[in-house]
Amino acid sequence: MNSIFFEVVGDSPRMRILQYLIEGRDFDYTLTDVLNAGVSWGTLHSEFPKLLDLGIVVKVGEVGRAKLYKINKENPTAKRLIDLYDSLMLEELESKREVLVEV
User: Fold this and answer.
1) Is the dihedral of CA 50, 45, 43, 59 positive or negative?
2) Residues ≥6 apart with Cβ < 8 Å to 34
3) Is the pTM of this model over 0.85?
4) Residues 49-69: pLDDT tens digits?
5) Which of 12, 17, 22, 68 could share a disulfide with 61, CB 3.0–4.6 Å?
6) Which residue ranges form the domains of the chain, and what is each CATH number?
7) What whole-number distance in Å separates Cα of residue 8 and Cα of residue 31?
């Protein structure tokens, strides 16, 4: 996965999970959905409880037996990560636009 976000914060399972949740910050996800972040089931089960304990991720509901989670946009750490992600993406888009304008 090439990502400007990973270049700055490092490519680790926790950062993959966080990037996935930040990119889809307006949606609710099951743990099975979060596997799309590119982590294994075992890794997800070891990292996700830590994110919940830190308040960076919150449980937002249930559908049947499935629990739904999302990034906690009210958590100060999550807010900073979202701001960092957004600013990095904006910088990358602007630099690509400048390259296109030069051509």
Assistant:
1) negative
2) 17, 20, 21, 44, 48, 69
3) yes
4) 999 999 999 999 999 999 999
5) 68
6) 9-102 (1.10.10.10)
7) 26
